Predict the 3D structure of the following.
Amino acid sequence: MENLELAIERIKKELPGMKLQENEPMSAHSSFRIGGPVRALATPGDVTGLTRLCAILKEQKLAPMLVGNCTNILFPDEGLPDLLLVSTEKLQKLFLLPDGAIYAEAGVSLSKLSSFAQANGLAGLEFASGIPGTVGGALRMNAGAYGGEMKDVVESVVYYYLPEQTLYEISRDNCRFGYRSSIFQQAAGFAILSAVFRLPAGDKDEIAAKMRELGEKRREKQPLDLPSAGSAFKRPEGHYAAQLIDEAGLKGYSVGGAQVSEKHAGFVVNKGGATSHDVYELLMHVRNTVHDKSGIALEPEIIILPPDYCLVDDGPAVHRNRVTVTDVSGETQRGEN
Ligand SMILES: Cc1cc2nc3c(=O)[nH]c(=O)nc-3n(C[C@H](O)[C@H](O)[C@H](O)COP(=O)(O)OP(=O)(O)OC[C@H]3O[C@@H](n4cnc5c(N)ncnc54)[C@H](O)[C@@H]3O)c2cc1C
């Protein structure tokens, strides 16, 4: 706690241009519209600002937690008085590399990324156009929909490894992507900064039509008019979470302001005034009831805070190519992995 207060004082003094919101209510940022104040939310203006911020935090023995659009997180009502969050909101570089691949920084939204691909006649990101997250959050989660996943389209990822204060670039094959999982969630300390997407050429009109079709499917099936964090549970092997929840008679089941969506049983929605406790209790009730009825244990897909975020740990040895800060702007040659 004392270290965090010292870090905040240093950030104000040493990085005076950085946006730093103190005691910021996370209900204003999370797609669930739930969450008390986090001690501080820092928004670096660029990658250099982010690395300088992380250096201060490391010296104070703190590890920050990165956030993108907060569309997959349940923040506690009590707040997180000992946490500093780092938003990637301003990491917005997005351009075509000379070899035709797309370079995108972590804060670029998936809708912007997929529209950019479509405008450049590049196919494969249609699945991502309706996912409300950012490149960073989606790579960490290996987000996916309608048969596509981030692992299918990404070629390499640049991340900052907090314990070593070093930038690395790794190829897709080393990201250990699995169903809603990646190397970036297997240990603390990975800050995803940017990624390169290599996509095949496609017809612009066909790509746009596919994006419209998937958008319509979403609007028809999902409760997009109410705050949520997307699918509440991961898909258990050989089953669909929504079907199991529906068969357990839980569609529409509520705890306080939290409800299993009447439109799509895989979503938990905030009907108004839901607390994190309401959501948590509802998730546990669904999990227990489905387990009693089917013997299947559902695992939440939503990230429930607080986690074990304060320690900088060593993490697995996965790093490949070191890169410099100028490399990640895309201005110099990227190394092969
Ligand atoms: C209406 C709705 C529909 C959705 N549909 C889908 C869907 O079809 N498919 C799907 O997979 N998901 C879906 N989601 C969930 C969510 O949008 C995705 O998981 C998304 O990829 C999360 O991105 P984000 O930027 O919001 O991440 P956040 O919620 O901000 O963060 C998620 C996790 O990633 C970490 N993180 C974020 N940025 C970084 C970074 N730069 N470096 C390291 N770690 C980082 C955070 O610490 C956190 O652990 C949906 C959500 C909603 C609300």
User: Anything to note?
Assistant: The chain has a mean pLDDT of 91. The pocket of flavin-adenine dinucleotide is lined by residues 31, 65-73, 88, 106, 131-134, 136-138, 140-141, 143-145, 184, 190-192, 224, 228-230, 303 (CB under 6 Å).
